[in-house]
Each structure stands twice: as C-alpha cells, then as structure tokens.
Design a protein that fits this description.
The chain contains 16 helices and ten strands. The protein is α/β, with parallel strands linked by helices.
Length: 438
Amino acid sequence: MLTRRRFLGYSATGILTAASGCRPLDFEQLSGQDVHVPVSQPSLREKGEIARRKHQFLGYPVNMNTPPDEFFLWRQQLRSVGIGDFAYNNVGIPFKHSPIPFNTHDFERELILRFGEIYGFSPADTWGFLSHSGTDSNMHGMYMGRTILKSRTGEVPKCYFTKEAHYSIQILRDLLGLETVYVDTLPDASMDPEDLRRKLADHPDHPALVVATIGTTFKGAIDPVDRIQKALQERESYLHLDAALFGGYLPHTSGRGEVLHVSPQDPGRIRYDSIAVSCHKFFGFPSPAGLFITTQSIFEEFNQQYSRIHDPEYIGHVPGTITCSRDAVKPAEFYFFSSPESIARQAEDAHAVLYHTDYLLDQLQSRFPDLHSHRVNDLSNTIFFKNPGQWVVEKYSLATMHLEIDGVTQDYAHVVVMPHVDRKLLTEFLTDLDQAAS
C-alpha cells in the first residue's frame, strides 16, 4: 500500500521530473512490491507507446505537434502565481467585473479582442469568450440565434444546414428543439444557395437560423457565405459560421475573406453574426477548447432576453453564457497563442499545410488513379479517396465513410494535412499505399 509516509519519502525531484514529461509517471514503479495496482487501472506505459505513434495520425483534424517550449514556460509562469494551482473560475463574461477575484477574465478578454481583429470584427464591437470546445461554441451561436429570432418575430426559427455539416449541429438542433431543414449541396459539397432560397420559400412564416460550414467535416467544402446572405435578404435570419478547423489557418492564406466578419469589398456589409473556431485543431492547443466570437450589439440583444430567464444577482451580472462555472486555466494558457510570435508561427504552419496538401494530391492522382482522389477546393487541407485497405486505415487512423460519387456508393477514407504532417510522413504513407495496391 502506498502510505502517506512512503509517498512523502520520494524525492520531489524524481516526482517533478516524471510529471514534467521526461518519462510517464508509472505508479507501478514508485514503490516496488508495496503498491496494490487494480487490474483495471490503465497503464501509463501503454499511453506512452501510443504517444510515440502520434506522427502517423492522418485521419482527423488535430495538430499533433507539441507546442513550443515557450508555451510550457508560460504554463509554469501561470502556475507560479496560482493559476491552475487551486480553484480558479471564469464564471460570468470577460467583459464585466466579477465578484470572484480568482479568474482570468483579463487574459480571456484580450485574446478574444486579438482574434476578433484577425476575423475582421471591429474592436469597438466585439464580444466572446473561450468555450469548452468547438461544439460548445456552436451551441452558443445557435442558442443566441434562436433566442434573438424568436424575440424579433415571436416564432421559433427553422434551422438550415447541409448533411455535410459537423454532426454536432444535428445534436444541437435537437437539444434546442429546432426543426431541421436540410439544404442540398453543390458538386463541391458546399451549401447550394439556390436550394436555400427554395427551402426558405417553403417556410415563409418562420425566421431562419442558418449554420454555414467553413471546411466541412469529411470533404473540406466551404459554404458560400456571401451568396447565402443574398438568399437571406428577405428573411429575418441569423447566420452562424462553424469554422472549427479552417478558421485557424485561412486568415493566413488567400482565403482570408472566407472568415472575415465584414466584406473586404464593402466594409459596411456584415457577412455573418457569430463564428466558432476550435483551439485544439489547427492551433495544436493540448486540450479541447473553442473560440466563440460575435458582436457586442448582438450579445446585448441576446442578453436582454436571456436576463428574463434567470436571476444573476448571485454573480453580479447576467453572464451571457449557457455554462455557469467556466474553465479559467484554458483562457490563460491559450492567451499564448494570441501573441505576435505565435501568430507568425501559425502563418508558417498554414502555408506548409497547403503546400503539403498540394503535393499529396499530385502524388495520389498521378501514382494511384484507381483511388479517385478528390480535393474540393484549393483552400482545403482535406483529400478523400477510395478506402485503400484496413491495415492502412488502422496504421494512420484514417476516418472512413460511405459516399456516393458519380452515382456509385463506395467506402472512402480521407487524409487531413495538419501542421505535423511533413514530407517524410507523406513518403511513408505513399509507400504503404504502393504496398497495399500490390
């Protein structure tokens, strides 16, 4: 049994070395034969073996690069002042005073303003927070849209999106009690604005809550926001953007306009109402989190209705968030990714991602024409192709789906080229495809 006396007998240096990542902390080794280890206890050694295969991860939109050393030094600085050392809580919103002093609202507020500027929001009209995940950000956008539209019209809106949208949208429309209207897609898998017009005409008495996707889950399509807005001109509407992955790297590419809040050609024209971007995808933040950004004016309209639902006297202001207690450590940690140095690294990663995607598509189409590889647009880092075989799927953790292409339904897989994907990994992958095809 690991007693308090025995635990305190271990050197602090040894425990801190293990906890810092130099080697997995394995409690089976801490006290020899005296520790009773339940059979069901997960093995940290096995986790270490899995971690060593992270460079082969190709099937899902997660940046497997370890953040730079400076990030972990920043973590230590936060810890040195108590952030992450005891119960910090970001209850409320970062733009209001909180009666609980143990928060990181200042870091959160600053990073929202910095990323808001990247997405073209006016610094004088920006509101948001760091959510628990991309799904949490989508939930807040859809809830705000539903609340505002019902207040304006007295009717619950219909929710419009395509079947290419992330599955979280299906969950959230059910959670929010919204009737779904599926919009057809164009050949590139993006939302068809003309079909949206037709579907809107089928429901003339209801406002429209539209969720557009900037980088669909399996094919990487980009819904045409400006054409969607034109289709919505005659309807009371709210347009939320799910830009979970693409929202991270598009601002550093020729596709920046796809995620800008205002039109570059017409600065007075607002393109969407709110945006969700995941922190753990392109950025490589080590745990799930999400940016949720909208305008202060939209927030105030929403919060006027939200304040009627509950009495916020306990925390001194109407919080504006569905979640009450919120993680205070993540905003302080993710603040690191809003620094000029981090933004510069993100720009480098964005260019590398598209460069390696170009290379992989060329290799797949020239060397493996039978796989029928597709990339739906030049801004996408996603390539999908016929399933190359189970052992390749398992080795590289490829996502698979049944797709109908040219009238034929087959099993497809895709590769998502993230910042950790380099020429060495692509060469290994292509070599394995050669072997699978032989």
